[in-house]
UniProtKB/TrEMBL annotation:
Annotated protein name in UniProt: Uncharacterized protein
Source species taxonomy: Bacteria, Pseudomonadati, Verrucomicrobiota, Opitutia, Puniceicoccales
Organism: Cerasicoccus arenae
Length: 230
């Protein structure tokens, strides 16, 4: 299993750079200077936090031509800061997870088509975790925690509908699963080896705040409530 890493800021595409140039140097007079600034990680981070970048991302027409990584990082980072979650690495990790989950959606012009997610049954995942070996258990634990964050963050209306009309588990059920499995993953030595322990532990402690921030992102893309898991 390949772990999700916080790579949104380091993975800007040519289309992303062109977008940032159009927003921050609309007359093109300082386009080269801007690229020099973006090449510096600290300056890049400051530029991505600018209100005009956030506003321009919000106003992107469909299909969105910037990368899912840039799109989700700007939105997640903005909402996380408003929620008191100041850590950029945490925002980057969550944005990377969201980008991986939604990159094939019709909202992004990626040429990858439109993929629906498979049905999510947490009880099956937990059974596999219990019977797995030491290392595999870690990866499966992370996977379940991440699924819980995606489904509660991006697909809350779908969860609420299933809980109300089909007797499926409710939002709090998946929040508890996400918190517990991020906590378990954060204490594993492999999380430290992959430099993800801090992100996992932060989400274990503040899963609900992160989920609410992602609900805001989902509202920005209204199609998500209709394009979720079965």
């Amino acid at each position: 299993m390949k772990l999700v890493q916080p790579i949104c800021r380091d993975g800007l595409t040519n289309a992303d750079l062109a977008f940032l140039q159009s927003v921050l140097t609309p007359d093109g007079s300082a386009a080269e200077a801007l690229l020099t600034l973006i090449a510096d990680p600290a300056m890049r981070d400051e530029l991505l936090d600018l209100p005009e970048v956030f506003q321009a991302v919000l106003e992107q027409p469909l299909p969105i031509t910037i990368s899912p990584r840039l799109y989700f990082f700007v939105l997640v980072r903005h909402r996380f800061v408003e929620s008191g979650l100041e850590d950029r690495e945490l925002a980057d990790y969550v944005a990377s997870l969201m980008a991986n989950s939604m990159a094939t959606s019709r909202v992004f012009d990626t040429g990858q088509g439109n993929a629906r997610q498979a049905p999510f049954y947490a009880i099956d995942d937990m059974s596999r975790i219990q019977s797995a070996g030491f290392c595999e258990r870690f990866y499966l634990t992370v996977c379940l925690a991440e699924k819980s964050l995606v489904v509660t963050g991006l697909f809350r209306p779908h969860l609420d509908y299933r809980a109300t009309y089909r007797g499926a588990p409710n939002l709090r059920y998946y929040e508890n699963i996400g918190q517990a499995h991020y906590r378990a993953a954060g204490g594993h030595h492999l999380a430290q080896e992959y430099c993800l322990s801090d992100c996992y532990q932060a989400l274990a402690a503040r899963f609900t705040e992160a989920r609410r921030a992602l609900n805001y992102v989902a509202e920005t893309l209204t199609f998500m409530g209709q394009d979720g898991p079965n």
